Amino acid sequence: MPIPLRWRLLDERTGATLTDCAVVDGLFVDRVFPPEPLYERYTLSSCAPTGPLLAAVDGTGPAWFGNFVLEGAHVPGRPVDGGCGAGCQDCDEIVEELLDVRVVGHRPAPGGPGLLDIDLEGHRRDNDNNRGGAVPPAVFGYRLSAWSTANGSIEGTPAGECADITGLFHERPDAWPPGPPLTLLGCRPGLNRSIEAELAHVRVDGTVHPMSWGQRVFGTVVAVRPSILGNDLVDITTDARIPEPLAATDRPLWDMWHAGGPTGPNLWAKLDRSGRYLWVRAAAVHRRHAPDKPADTVYHLDGRYVTDYDAFYCAIGEAVNGPGGWFGGDLFWLHENAATGDGGATPGFRLIWHNSEVARSHLVSGYDRKSWLPVVTFDDLVRHLTGDGVQLELR
Question: 262-394 in CATH: which number?
Fold first, then answer.
């Protein structure tokens, strides 16, 4: 029986097929998605708190206030360039965001009367600013702001200034490090050179679905030998590592899509929210591009299982494009598909949302510890859909 060659390497520059393989060993790793954040202790030094930070310190407000932003502050009397002190980097490079933050202590600061040293607990948003948070920026103190979750707002509220922060700038392990060196098993043809390739998933029907930048293959062939899978195939050892490997929990979903995709609606309903996010991501890779359906098409969203934000995208994807369908996975792509088309439905379409009370009762205001942002509520989704011209009927 022929061995299915389910992965394809496409030349980064030309798109030509470099090789087809049965297995990419190192693509799936034994990790849990999403990774647990690393909570840390920070100290704001010589701080003059205002607003929500002052309220957290003096007990007139909650100790927890969601997200916390630090921006480089200028020193009075120095030239100001975009709010930064003379000689500092562009402000975009010095902004740091702390997530799920609470005040855990405070005391008088030696820097002057009325100033405080304030201890925070939270974790840093993973980004490239300040060399991934490893090196303090060249600034003269920080302006502070807190993000309110009231009414879904993400507007910053001024929270004071401080002279410095300790505990923030240091080396950290990668939250989701690259995978191990890849071994391509059961390949045809072999490779004997450096690789700069896009990885694509090949389904049983022969359709080819390129994956994202995070799964591209850049490296060098180390060895080629007859495959352990036989059938005149070869195994290719490389020094390439997948920048963003897939979680082991992803594998059953990819096996399902390889075999033809979901065989009926709501197969995602039994998954937890992380699994539903992975479902939407796999659906995006495996979407089949086709002209938008006629303008008079009516779509029915089965709302019985829309108990979280990612469930909504599972459900609307299936409403528009059938089992396993994709119609966006965040507000940006929901807008792009609903307002401009190319997602399967002609803009201005009619959508009947059945059992909408389920989402209304679950998607309520609060703080989302998946996105680390205020929750996208049921009312937010309704406002976005209707604002993009969708004829929405709630039942």
Answer: 3.30.370.10
